[in-house]
Amino acid sequence: MVCVTLCLLSTTASAVTVDDLYIGEVLVSEESDAQLEAGARAGLLQVLIRVAGSEEIQSSALVVNALRNPASYYYQYSYQSTDRTMLVDGEIIAARVLRLNFEPSAIARLLREAGFSVWSSNRPGLLVWIALSDGSGRRLMSEDDESDVRVALSDVAKQKGLPLLFPLLDLEDAASLSAAEVWGAFVDRIDGASLRYQPDVILSARVQMSASGQWLGDWTYRLDSRWVRFDNVADTPSELVMDVMDKLTGLLVERYATDDSRGSVAVTIESINSLADYGGALAYLQKLAPVLDVEILAVDEDRVSYKLKTEGSVDQLIELIELDQRMFLIRAPQLSDSMMLYRWLQ
């Protein structure tokens, strides 16, 4: 199972680093060459979907060709024991987990050559408030809820690399928001209760199973301070949740993932007051997914100016930096001056 940070019990959530973004994990029946090759193909597809944030990569001829030779994309693999089982030739046997470490640069290069965006491991936290009615009464769903809806939500989030933030549902939450208010989509109340978690995105829902056995969802999400509402119907919780997460992932990829356009941008960072700040800022810029190269242009007292070679738009770069909250934007690029000015915060 792919390891993703699924909940934060912190009151300062914001952006979340998705763990093991480039690690694929696949159940296999034995440690053979055939199982390794088949498992590596499945693991490569897992990672490509997670990094691109899109299932559409499976239709790419370049990706299909790459799946024929997955060994070109991973540098390490190992096997781990598990308590899960598999049915092989009519016999139930103990399964093992094949864990593969894929090379980030190779994955990014393949996706870009195939015309897909690359989404970094720094992703917006998605806070979920779900009022669930499934025969066990109406309740707010917690991270420990054993319902099929919660399991489906967590599974789909892992597939897509979306970090879910579940509310604590403690006394403070109880005083701020009730299941009835979530059920009724009282967005002002949901907004207020969400402040302590500082999420990037809020997903609220009324989910119930009908008398005929179908699953009904009435969903509301907030992105950029704007609430959008829609509903859906499905035969299973997995189908219900997948439809919602596909919509949200598409929006987030469009906003945060980098495309294959290239350019350069000038950035000045102030409040560089020590060698630690100098090294920290340089290392931070170099690790940003859209940044291909960093050139230091000038050092003037507590200010350092850089030229960044980048992929994607400047707006995407600004959005990613805003997620991290390690630098504060003082001046965005202007028509008359393309220099961006930031203040170093840590």
The helix-strand sequence is: EEHHEEHEEEHEHHHEEEHEHEEHEE
Class by alpha and beta content: alpha+beta
CATH topology annotation of the largest domain? Rossmann fold
- Give the helix proportion (percent range): 25-40%
Strand-helix topology:
Layout: E1 16-17, E2 23-28, H1 33-52, H2 61-67, E3 74-88, E4 91-102, H3 104-113, E5 122-123, E6 126-133, E7 138-140, H4 148-160, E8 164-165, H5 171-176, H6 179-183, H7 187-194, E9 201-209, E10 215-223, E11 226-234, H8 237-256, E12 262-270, H9 275-287, E13 291-300, E14 303-311, H10 314-324, E15 327-331, E16 340-344
Parallel strand pairs: 6-8, 6-9, 12-16
Antiparallel strand pairs: 1-5, 2-4, 3-4, 6-7, 9-10, 10-11, 12-14, 13-14, 15-16
Sum this structure up briefly.
With 346 residues, this protein is of the alpha+beta class. It is globular, with a radius of gyration of 22 Å.
Task: Provide an overview of this structure.
There is one protein chain. 33% of the residues lie in helices and 33% in strands. The protein is α+β, with helices and mostly antiparallel strands and 346 residues long. It folds into 3 domains: 20-113; 122-256, 3-Layer(aba) Sandwich (Rossmann fold), CATH 3.40.50; 262-344, 2-Layer Sandwich (Alpha-Beta Plaits), CATH 3.30.70. Helix 4 (148-160) packs parallel to helix 8. Residues 1-13 have low confidence and may be disordered.
List keywords for this structure.
346 residues; alpha+beta; Rossmann fold; Alpha-Beta Plaits; 3 domains; 6-stranded mixed sheet; 10 helices; 33% strand; globular; disordered N terminus
